[in-house]
């Protein structure tokens, strides 16, 4: 009887005996070998994404009209609301099941946890997710889960998932990681953020990575007890992001990355080891390099640091603190002919001529995004005029799309960015936190004057049609003014976001690899 499930019989008012069967929940997930055989027998063709069934007045029966309308309603509801509405009637349950078919991105929100349980009957949420979502969706994002639950229970039917994001989960054990690799062999993107691993997960982590054959993007960030040295990365990997990567032997880990995944094109490492700067030069195909917390000071500079053949292929470069000697030696147009985005910090040296050192960056032929941080060991900045002159020369080239400096620009310069750079998407500058600079900065940027001149500049011009095309600025610059919450041209934010150019490079790199792989 267990194989057939439970049976329920009842006599209706019409005298007819009705029978209901409840099948057991056990489902069989196809193995990787079975999927490969199925693909060989039935070649995958480019099918269009499923679309909701259109209402055809000539074919739609009146008895089906109510359910079809409910399907449209369910498709606009959040996940939890849709689950709760299923229990209203059998018609609602049927409509809810049919409404899942077009969903490709499923999110388990943090709000699903309330007082140590789920917002609806404990495990029923995950059971419904498996039955409704996992068999259809390509992207699954889990932001909350009780300690006694396990990820592989949710992935029981999720063999179609191509993008998995785990965030803020507690005590992920090695067996769960191994199950992820076994149940999701076609995974292309794996992101693990702010999770806590069990102390003994190294073997499970390696077994998981070993089972991935098509993984393109792998990111691990701010996870407790993450000590894997990544010995089993798949060769298909192209984009790797390691935030707060503080393993015991980081040099050995980076060596493993280069040997196991030699074709990486985008690499981000937050590591405090000084050896990282020299080791990343062994990657032959890098286009984007981000090194956080690894300063390039005079004691680590060598004549062969960032050679021409390495730097010429870079499209984006993010560094921590760099010395004046490194800037003078390497920040030249002939070293970075393809560079579109650069980020670095400097510590002010009053004896340095920054007009000369930073001036070479203005001549970079492809540069359209820059983030510059200037810091000092003194009470206040001494070379402020030279930094502002550098910023002026940059935006007068007219190519900037993203500009971020930790200096307060003058009103004239802020307007100048909009006058010279028609493609500007984000402009970040802000007041200094140093009290010694406040009096001097009061005469720099005047919000009301900026608003007046900006309105004159945009007079009789058509504003952008969507928020994504507005220019992002910091809202605290306009406190107490009518621009505090933005307008049809400017979107004000409280926090600084990274450059959109980096996101574009990420998307382009992913699509390029996908297209090349599809042709093969």
Automatic annotation (TrEMBL):
<dbReference type="InterPro" id="IPR032675">
    <property type="entry name" value="LRR_dom_sf"/>
</dbReference>
<protein>
    <submittedName>
        <fullName>Uncharacterized protein</fullName>
    </submittedName>
</protein>
């Amino acid at each position: 009887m267990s194989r057939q499930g439970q049976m329920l019989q009842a006599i209706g008012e019409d005298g007819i005996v009705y029978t209901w069967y409840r099948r057991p929940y056990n489902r069989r997930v196809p193995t990787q070998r079975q999927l490969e055989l199925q693909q060989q027998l039935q070649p995958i063709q480019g099918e269009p994404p499923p679309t909701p069934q259109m209402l055809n007045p000539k074919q739609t029966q009146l008895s089906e009209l109510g359910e079809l309308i409910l399907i449209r309603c369910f498709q606009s509801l959040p996940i939890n609301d849709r689950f709760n509405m299923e229990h209203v009637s059998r018609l609602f349950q049927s409509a809810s099941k049919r409404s899942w078919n077009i969903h490709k991105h499923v999110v388990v929100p943090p709000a699903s946890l309330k007082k140590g349980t789920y917002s609806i009957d404990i495990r029923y949420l995950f059971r419904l997710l498996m039955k409704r979502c996992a068999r259809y969706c390509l992207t699954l994002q889990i932001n909350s889960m009780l300690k006694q639950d396990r990820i592989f229970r949710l992935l029981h039917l999720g063999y179609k998932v191509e993008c998995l994001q785990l965030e803020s989960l507690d005590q992920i054990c090695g067996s769960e990681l191994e199950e992820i690799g076994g149940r999701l062999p076609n995974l292309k993107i794996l992101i693990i953020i702010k999770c806590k691993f069990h102390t003994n997960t190294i073997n499970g982590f390696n077994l998981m990575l070993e089972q991935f054959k098509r993984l393109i993007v792998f990111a691990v960030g701010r996870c407790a007890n993450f000590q894997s040295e990544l010995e089993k990365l798949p060769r298909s990997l192209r984009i790797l992001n390691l935030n707060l990567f503080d393993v015991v032997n980081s040099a050995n880990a980076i060596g493993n990355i280069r040997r196991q995944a030699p074709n990486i094109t985008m690499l981000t490492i937050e590591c405090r080891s000084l050896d990282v700067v020299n080791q990343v030069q062994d990657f032959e195909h890098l286009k984007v390099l981000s090194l956080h917390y690894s300063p390039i000071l005079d004691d680590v500079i060598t004549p062969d640091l960032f050679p021409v053949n390495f730097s010429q292929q870079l499209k984006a470069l993010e560094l921590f603190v760099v010395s004046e000697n490194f800037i003078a030696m390497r920040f030249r147009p002939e070293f970075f002919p393809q560079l579109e985005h650069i980020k670095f910090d400097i510590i002010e040296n009053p004896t340095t001529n920054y007009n000369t050192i930073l001036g070479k960056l203005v001549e970079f032929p492809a540069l359209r995004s820059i983030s510059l941080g200037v810091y000092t060991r003194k009470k206040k900045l001494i070379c402020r005029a030279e930094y502002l002159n550098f910023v002026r020369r940059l935006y007068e080239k007219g190519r900037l799309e993203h500009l971020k400096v930790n200096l307060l620009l003058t009103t004239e310069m802020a307007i100048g960015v909009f006058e010279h750079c028609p493609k500007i998407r984000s402009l970040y500058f802000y007041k200094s936190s140093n009290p010694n600079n406040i009096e001097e900065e009061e005469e720099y940027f005047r919000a009301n004057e900026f608003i007046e001149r900006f309105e004159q500049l945009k007079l009789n011009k058509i504003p952008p049609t969507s928020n994504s095309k507005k220019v992002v600025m910091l809202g605290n610059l306009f406190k107490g003014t009518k621009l505090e919450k933005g307008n049809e041209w400017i979107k004000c934010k409280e926090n600084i976001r990274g450059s959109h150019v980096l996101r574009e490079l990420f998307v382009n790199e992913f699509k390029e690899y996908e297209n090349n792989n599809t042709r093969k």
